[in-house]
Amino acid sequence: MDATTHSTTLIVLLLPFIAAVFAPALTRIFKHNTAWVLAIVPAVVFWHFFTFLPEIERGEVVTGGYQWIPAYRVNFSWFIDGLSLTFALLISGIGVLIVMYSGGYLKKHPQLGRFYSFILMFMGSMLGLVVADSFLMFFVFWELTSITSFLLIGFDHKREVSRRAALQALVVTGGGGLFLLAGMLLIWNVTGITELSLLLRADVALVDSPYYIAILVLVLGGAFTKSAQFPLHFWLPNAMEAPTPVSAYLHSATMVKAGVYLLMRMNPVLGDTAAWETVLPLFGGTTLIVGTLLAVRQTDMKLMLAYTTVSSLGLLVMLTGFGYEKAIEAAVLYLVAHSMFKGALFMVAGAIDHEAGTRDINKVGGLITAMPIVFGAAIASAISMAGLPPFFGFLAKEEIYAGLWHPGSWPLFFTLVAIVGNGLMFVIGFAVALKPFLGEKKSPTEHPHDGPVLLWLGPVVLAALSLLTAVFSGVVHRYISDPMSTAVAGEPVEVYISLIPPIGVPLLLSVITIVFGVVAYRNLERMRSAMATVLETIGWGPDRGFDQFIRGLVRMSFWFTQIVQPGRLEIYMKTTFIVLALCLLVPMFVYDELPAMPRFPHDMALYEMVIMAIAVVGLLAVIYAKNRLTAIVSLGIQGFAVALIFMLFGAPDLSFTQFMVETLSVVILALVMTRLRLTPTDHRSVGTRVIDMSISVVCATAFVLLLLNVTQLPFDQTLSDFFTRYSVPIANGGNIVNVILVDFRGTDTWGEIAVVLVAGLAILSLMRIRLRPAVPIASNDPVEEERR
Amino acid sequence: MRTLIFRTVAPYLTSLIVVFSVFVLLRGHNEPGGGFIGGLIAASAFAIYGIACGVSPVRRALYFHPMGIAGAGLTLGSLAGLLSVFERVPFMTGLWYYVPIFGQELVLSTVLLFDIGVYFVVLGSITSIALALEERSND
After folding, report:
1. CB count, 10 Å around CB of A481?
2. How far is residue A130's CA from residue A88's CA, in Å, rounded to a whole number?
């Protein structure tokens, strides 16, 4: 890769973010026609990645990057092989259509600019994710997609449901991201590798590592949350609260596929083990069936499509982990096919919602004459979704059966799962594409019509692509399917399937699926009511479980905070002193390090004894003081005595400071005490007094023992010698204490004065709060909050 | 506290103590003293003034809000550390300049500048706390 492509790739990766900054301003100028301007951004990205196709087709990989944090060997580096390239093309290609569609769908929306900003940021994160090479970059972009999708789902932030959906998606996918981070750190620890490309090329047997299961669980935790695998699927249907362009983009073609991308990426490294080939098909298969069954239950087109997306993701996970080469080919083909037909169908649902005013398939009908273009796109996409020729979905489905049909009960079981899943998706696809358009004409709005070109261009282009890719399957396989399957399988793979399928079991299974689908379609209403009854009987789902989990979390933190932070100064002080005493005493007893009994100094001068006596008298005065003010002043006596001792033993600076600190603390304490309007005398009960006294005696003993211990150790002169020797020559200062403070350890002092300042500010603001009339303080009790 | 004698003496006492605090600050590098202790002395001076004559005269005398003084001190301290950038040496490296003036040699250093910063932070923070407390004991 030459230098120009190198820097162009960086610019292309950053382009969506740059465009996101200018999107609001552009929207103010061009209104909804910004769509045409902003669509250039993904188009440029698409074109840039498109030029990599010949290189990728030859089996090469494109790598590049810049140093990011060289000290930790973290790079901002990309790595483009068949898998990344297909994803990048899907993201940017569908991105073009989505940007245009948004212009039509959110026409006249006051926050269109903000919407564009969010969706471009999301596009940039997603692109970064699929081309990321270093683990850290991968993780950063992974979490960025979670955050940007949070913004997009909660775009309609004034509605509570959409706020809840956004938060739910963030908690689930962001939490999964943490799993992924832990998994990647573990991989790094085991292999010492921080780049995906090196990991794929390196000859490390990660599967033989004792940490394999832990790595697997963590990576799957990330992938399953992102790709909405059962039982963590609930956030995806809820995310349908987002405007339809978001659903069409994030929840069909891009974000939810990030988890599948991760699994496909890791397949050569983590796959080919019993655990991988058991867990993935089981979770995927369950998700497939649960998703389709829940989709049958719905009448809202978007929700029907959302649940089938859940099941399609399940199918992809199942195929990725199935362990046969054909299954991987099938996953690749289905992923591409799904991005096209599901994106189109979501946009169709949005167009109907926009023009006819509802998404409920029971409330609209007969739109075929009013919306012929949309109908064409819808029916083509539904055929692709159902896996019928001549669309790309057909190739995918043939390959699915070829990949699953193997001798043995395990493959047979999953073949049955796939037949049921595909059959039900057939039903949903046609329900969405036919019900609103056929039958008796009804619609909540007066004159539904195809709408502006921006609204139908996306679905039409995608439907046409479904057809073209199937017709020219040879070219598609050569440039897309082969390189991508090779990347996923970790060894050269070639895909042959075309519109003329080989006669065999897969074709027979397709026919069975179609028959099952047609029968099920005729009984859709009956199935729906049956599903409704079943769900009502169960009465509990992961969605409610999520609420209960969050509520439990809030209550637990409240309960814990109540214990740790009861809000009584007395308890804090007691805890602090008890812990302090324990910290000092326990090690001394455990390690038998009690100091030797000190010798009474016989050479003590009289004035020294007098000063000691003053200190003791001061302390006694504190204890026997009649009121608090006297106690504070008496405490000052003791402080001054200590300052004198410092002076006598040759520490004038320390003594000086001690004098000032003592003076000021007496003044400030006295002022505080007068303000607090406490009763002037101590009114603790005898019991409390005894406890407090014991604590203080124990603490004091601990300190005495500590000091004796310290003084009995040989004194290390290194630092004193250093400072004495270098204070004048290096720092030009005779006063060692000051030189240490402002020069040798100046940065410490710098931090300390910042602390002094902040503490001052805090005290000041605390006092200011109390000046105002009493404001009711929130209790933060979750139970109380819920009642309100 | 507001005895006539105290009130009369306090302004003189305060100015004397403040001058003394500056003296302590400036001699600090070679003799006992320094910015921290100087700041404490100055703060106690203003506390005395406040107790004797009330808070508003002190605020008038200080002119700036004490917290502002503290902020300026921190800025000064940080600047003293950052000056080392121009000499391409690490942050907080002490720099010394000898300026000949009237045949004498004036010694300037970033260390002294930093110490002045410390002085202002301590003076400002403590004074603002003390003044806020005194204010409230009078209302």
Report:
1. 25
2. 7
CA distance A678 to chain B (A): 13
Q: Determine, for residues A660 and B51 on separate chains, whether the beta-carbon distance falls below 8 Å.
A: no
Pick from B131, B135, B125: nearest CA to B40 = B125
**What tokens appear for B13 in the block?**
């006492």
Cβ–Cβ contacts within 10 Å for residue A687, how many?
8
* Cα gap A226→A258, rounded to integer Å: 7
Please tell me the total number of residues recorded for chain A in this structure: 788
Our CA-based measurement puts residue B53 at a distance from the nearest CA of chain A, in whole angstroms, of 15
Are the C-beta atoms of residues A683 and A628 closer than 8 Å to each other? no
How many whole angstroms separate alpha carbon A86 and alpha carbon A485? 10
* Cβ-proximal residues to A610 (8 Å cutoff; 6+ apart), any chain: none
Amino acid making up residue A67: Q
Burial label, A267 (beta-carbon count in 10 A; 0-12, 13-18, 19+): buried
| Residues of B whose CB is below 8 A from A763 | 129, 132
- Which pair of structure tokens corresponds to residue B50? 């406040």
Amino acid identity of residue A607, one-letter, is Y
ipTM given for this complex:
0.92
**Owner of token pair 């896996």:** A387
Task: Report the C-alpha gap between A316 and A320 in whole angstroms.
Answer: 6
Asked if residues A62 and A55 have their Cβ atoms less than 8 Å apart, the reply is yes
Quick one: closest CA in B to A735, which residue?
Answer: B30
Per-residue pLDDT tens over the stretch A313-353? 999 999 998 888 888 888 999 999 999 999 999 999 888 88
Greatest CA span in chain B, whole angstroms?
A: 58
Give B85→chain A minimum CA distance, Å. Answer: 15
Position A769 confidence tier, pLDDT thresholds 50, 70, 90: low
Q: What pTM was estimated for this model as a whole?
A: 0.76
Q: Determine the distance from the C-alpha atom of residue B71 to the mean position of all C-alpha atoms in its chain, rounded to a whole number.
A: 12
Inter-chain touch A738–B133, beta carbons under 8 Å: no
The pLDDT tens digits for A725-756 are 888 888 888 888 888 888 888 899 999 999 99
Nearest by CB to residue A747, choosing from B91, B118, B136, is B91
Question: Containing H/E element for A105?
Answer: helix A82-105
The percent of chain B in helix, strand and coil, each rounded to the nearest 5, is: 75, 10, 20
**Roughly what angle, to the nearest 10 degrees, separates helices A372-386 and A409-434?**
170
Amino acid at A575: T
* Cα–Cα distance, A397 to A409 (Å, whole number): 21
Q: Which residues of B touch A746 (CB under 8 A)?
A: 81, 92, 94, 111, 114
